[in-house]
Amino acid sequence: MTTATRPDHRPSRTAPPSPQPPQPRNDRGLRGRLRAVRRWNLPAGVASLLWLVVVGLPLYVLVLATLRSNEAYYDKGALSLPGDLTLDNYRKVLEGDFFTYLFNTLIVTAATAVIVIVLSVGVGYTVVRTLSDTSRRIFQFFLLGLAIPAQAVILPVYLLITEMQLYDSLLAIILPISAFCLPVCVLILAGTMRDIEEEMYESMALEGASQTRILLQLVVPLSRGGIATVGVYAALQAWNNFLFPLILTQSRETKVLTLGLYDYVGQFRVDIPALLAAVVLSIVPIFVVYLFARRQLINGLMGAGGR
């Protein structure tokens, strides 16, 4: 009796592929492309160098002048080489009323930014989500403020502040600056909120969300870039404003930094090193704010939800 043998189904082992020799790199083509890039970037490099000189020279003069005495500044000139440097100008500024002016400026800046953000978010959301003639006219009314300069209405503003008995107070500065910041800020936030997908609004409405919940949980998080842009813009306008503090305040207790610089301007002579030292110290806080908010500013330019 013969037995059948089961065929062997084991797969046959194949020989491993032989290693391929390394392919030579096309270094010549790579070097050629690098040379082309360097050649085409030469004008950009020259332009960047010129721009660095244009920006760096005023900063050099500004910082160097603060480290000189008043007599050395007038004797040697602004562009002379550094020598006999001193910190007396910064000491003179800090020993004066600089911190009072700084505190007042911080209050005006923070209050203006908060007021502008709250009002522009509400108005922008109303304009975007309310499809009626009234909302469109409100938006056009805000845009009309872009064409009205503050200098043209300073007298009516002065009369209103006086009638409200707010003259010579920080609130007299905060309210007009906030009003003149609103047109630009409403325009920015309305454009940002229009970039939000309509399906997101509809999905939250189908879930039974109220308008307040949609605003706080959907619109505000997706518009944080635009909100940061609006906040920084309003802060810069409040920090650098000179017209309203000059017209609407009078006492030393309500002075801000832009008016405090006049302390170093005398009747017959100007203490330029001390004045520039006060300018440098007044730049530092708003520059720190910009460093922390620059990413959100870029996101605001990218639209809603930009990352």
TrEMBL record:
Annotated membrane topology: Multi-pass membrane protein
Residue ranges of the TM segments: 40-63, 101-127, 139-161, 173-193, 214-236, 272-293
Bias-annotated ranges (Pro residues): 14-24
Chain intervals for the UniProt region annotation (Disordered): 1-29
Gene3D superfamilies: MetI-like
Locations listed in the record: Cell membrane
SUPFAM superfamilies: MetI-like
Keywords recorded for this protein, A-Z: Cell membrane, Membrane, Transmembrane, Transmembrane helix, Transport
Residue spans of biased composition, Basic and acidic residues class: 1-11
CDD domains with a match to the protein in the record: TM_PBP2
UniProt-listed InterPro entries: MetI-like (IPR000515), MetI-like_sf (IPR035906)
Signal peptide residues on this chain, from the entry's feature table: none
Domain ABC transmembrane type-1: 102-293
Classification via Pfam families: BPD_transp_1 (PF00528)
Family the UniProt entry places it in: Belongs to the binding-protein-dependent transport system permease family.
Protein name: Carbohydrate ABC transporter permease
